[in-house]
Every structure is written in C-alpha cells, then in structure tokens.
Amino acid sequence: MTYARQMLDSYRHDVNVDAGMLAATVDALNDCAQACAADVDADLSEQNLAEMVKCIRQCLQCTDLCTATVSVLSRPTEYDPNVTRPLLEACLAICKSCGDECERHAHMHEHCRVCAEACRRCERTCRDLLVALT
User: Fold this and answer.
1) What CATH number has the domain bearing residue 30?
2) Which residue from 119, 53, 67 is spatially nearest to 92, judged by alpha carbons?
3) Looking at the 3D structure of the chain, how many domains does it have?
4) Which residue, 130, 52, 128, 61, is CA-closest to 94?
5) Measured at the alpha carbon of residue 88, what is the angle toward residues 86 and 94, in degrees to the nearest 5?
6) Its pTM surpasses 0.85
7) Distance (Å, rounded) from C-alpha 93 to C-alpha 99?
8) Has residue 12 got a pLDDT over 90?
9) pLDDT by residue (tens digit) across 35-74?
10) CA–CA distance, 20 with 62 (Å, rounded to integer)
C-alpha cells in the first residue's frame, strides 16, 4: 500500500471519490514529476543538446503541472471541482505532449523511454479520475 493510500485511509472525513483511484492518481503524478525531473537532468548531459531542448521544456512543464496537481489532490476533504478539473485537464494535455516528445527520443535514450512511460501512465490515471469526478 502506498503512502497516498495510507493517508487517504487515515482521513476522518469522507472523501468524495474512490480512495484507490485517487491514490493511484497521486502516485502516478508523483512518479511522472520525478521521471520528468530526472529526464531533464539526463537530457542536459546528452551530446546533441540542441535536439533535446523541446524535450527539456516539455519535461519542466510536466513536472510543474504534476507537482501542483498532486498537491491539490492530496487535500481531498474540501474537493472543489472548479479547481481540480482544470488541473487534471492540464495534466492530461502536458502528459500527452511530454510523452509524445519523449517517445521521439526513446529509441536513442532510455531515460526518454522511461519518462514517456511515466507520462502515459499519468495521462491514463488523470483521465480516469476526471471521468469519475463528472
């Protein structure tokens, strides 16, 4: 059991969404932010840095959005759909863009393959949670 799930299970108040789905999304967001941050560092050490600029920018944006979204989702007792939905939608968009860009480099760089995989997982879990919240 992840820490996200343990924290959700410790709440004294009702959470308005399935705790397992919420915990899976929190975990995917954290994993994606970490993978993107690590990918930026690895990209910066590549010989042809000019080819990696777009990937670096996408990863930085993805890290920022995932981090902001996980912070909001980690405080679910006062769920505000006017805040949560746009954040999840933004994560969907950046995870798709970042995953697409990382996949372009995946055949040459293992770190990009791993990052793309994390982005795709995050994209799926954010989409699933967004559907569950509607």
Assistant:
1) 1.20.1270.360
2) 119
3) 1
4) 61
5) 100
6) yes
7) 10
8) no
9) 999 999 999 999 999 999 999 999 999 999 999 999 999 8
10) 23
